[in-house]
Amino acid sequence: MGYKVFVSYKYKDYDVKHIDGGTNGTARDYVDYLQARKFSGDDLNMAESGDEDLSEFKDETIQTHLKDKIWGSSITLILISPNMVDNSKSEEDQWIPWEVSYSLRTQTKAGRRSRPNALIAVVLPNILGQYNYFVSYNTYTDRNDQKRQVQSICTGNTFEIIRNNMFNQKNPNTEEVDGHKIYHGDSCYITTVEWEDFINDMESYFDKAIELRDKISEYNIQINVKKRDFS
């Protein structure tokens, strides 16, 4: 495979399409699929197997827990699923935002220094086999009167730390079309891809994500997790 990969996902999201060989009926089945068919040995390190409440954890405890899991990986896969966000909890009380946060940090361990990870948002099909809860496609006419297809991402359906690391290029190439801003090129640090496309060409997506990681200074990166609002 060539890359060490960490996977962040919502274990108990049942609103995903059944995958061949799946035994849990949740997003965890997709992680098991990757482990069994796409990776070998310890190239894949998965996140939590449950939904442990973090509300009583100190930041240092979370750091200790995640540092070893993410250490040594160069890419973090974020499995996007319909119910990955628990709106009954603050973002700082859920694992995924912290996993993304530590994936974006420079860490030091035993005198060695790691770089931030490349990040890929892999959108899982919902229970109906659709991706349109997060990704959709529209056709527009560009300034040269050519028909083009554009990908729309429902960034509001995920955590702040994920959406704020999309469309975050410091000097993006954009154009206005019918009152909408269209982004061209590598406008997002976190790239987005549908599950089927990803598993059919994983190496290309990994290589592209690493290319963006090597240009991380060109992006406005949010590292910190959104704190609960006490106002």
Describe the structure in your own words:
With 231 residues, the chain is an alpha/beta fold. It contains six helices and eleven strands. It has helices at 28-37, 59-70, 95-103, 160-163, 195-200, 202-213, and strands spanning 5-8, 44-46, 75-80, 107-109, 112-114, 118-123, 135-141, 147-153, 173-177, 180-184, 191-194. A hairpin with a 2-residue loop joins β9 (173-177) and β10 (180-184). α2 packs across α3 (95-103).
Lay out the secondary structure.
Blueprint: E1 5-8, H1 28-37, E2 44-46, H2 59-70, E3 75-80, H3 95-103, E4 107-109, E5 112-114, E6 118-123, E7 135-141, E8 147-153, H4 160-163, E9 173-177, E10 180-184, E11 191-194, H5 195-200, H6 202-213
Helix pairs in contact: 2-3
